Every structure is written in C-alpha cells, then in structure tokens.
Amino acid sequence: CMHPMFSVIEQEQYLDRAIKILEQIKVDSIIDELILAEMKYTLYLTMSKFYKFSLKDNEGSLGFLNKMIEIDPNDSVGYLEIGLFYYHKQNYKIALNNFQKCTELGPPSLSMVHFFIGMCQKKLGFIDEMIISLEKSIGFDQLALSPVFELASHFVGKDSKKASHYKMIIKNNPDLSEQLDNEEISILNSIK
Asked: What pTM did the predictor assign?
C-alpha cells in the first residue's frame, strides 16, 4: 500500500493525518469543492485497501468504500469494490447487486464486472444468466482469459461442442493461451 520502509503503524498515522488535513480544508468555489471531493475519494480508496490488506480489518475497509459512494454515488468504482468485498465474503446476493449497479453506471472494468456478475449467478444457481454474463464479459475484453475458461469448464461433460468452442478460442489466441497455468492446461486438454 505504501512504502515498505514505514511500519504499518506509521503508514496508518500518515493516512489518518491526510484524512484530517482534507477534512479541515475549506473551499469557496465549486471547482475547489470538486477537487477536494476527488482527493477524498482517492484517499478513501487507499484507506480501504490499507485497512483490508495491511490491518486485515474488513469492516474498516467497507466503511471507507461506503464513504466513497457518499462522495460520488455515480462512480462505479465504489460499487465494484463493495461487490468484490461481499464476493470474497461469499455473500453473493449483495455482491451481485453491487456489480449490477456498476453496469448501470458504466466503465471502468465492465469486463471484470460482468465476469463477477456471472460468478455470483453461478453461485446462486442462475446458470443461464451466468452464461450470458460471461459472454458479455468476453465482448468487453477478448483478452480476458477468465470468462472464456469458465465457459469452457462449465460445458465440460454437459455440451462437448460448446466446451470445444471455448477451448479453441483460448488455443487459437496466444494472448489467452499464454495466461494458462498447468491446472488450466490440463482441464483444456481433457476437452475433445
């Protein structure tokens, strides 16, 4: 999160100090207000990551993500991060709602958002919807391996023609096939 020469305690102190400084700034124009909001938004995202990864404080992390949404409810990044938060906590319904909010708001990361929508749908048992979401993910980023591989894996033992179709997409694209790990290669090689 920050430079490794600082201890976690020092990092937290610097970030807390940055928040206090931003909260004390008084602005007198709309432009300054927008700049201040953007600075807070960025700092809250940093704080969220710091709390999650350095302090292992998921609830503290979520608090900063919610502050991001308070600042700019029309920016999809806060909803994406909250979706990922709940996805990793295996609360797929709340994660799905946040990912779907991202699609309403637009870029960035629409391929990733649709991939995670598909993964939530899979976990919730909405398989037809999962397939549609993963196809949308591929449409946004043809170089993203995860949705193509997920579809190939999904169709193994269910529909060999579709499984083979997705396998060939990966095999025929060096940018995709270079991303495969040994386990994924083994799975793909099992598809006829």
From this structure: 0.85
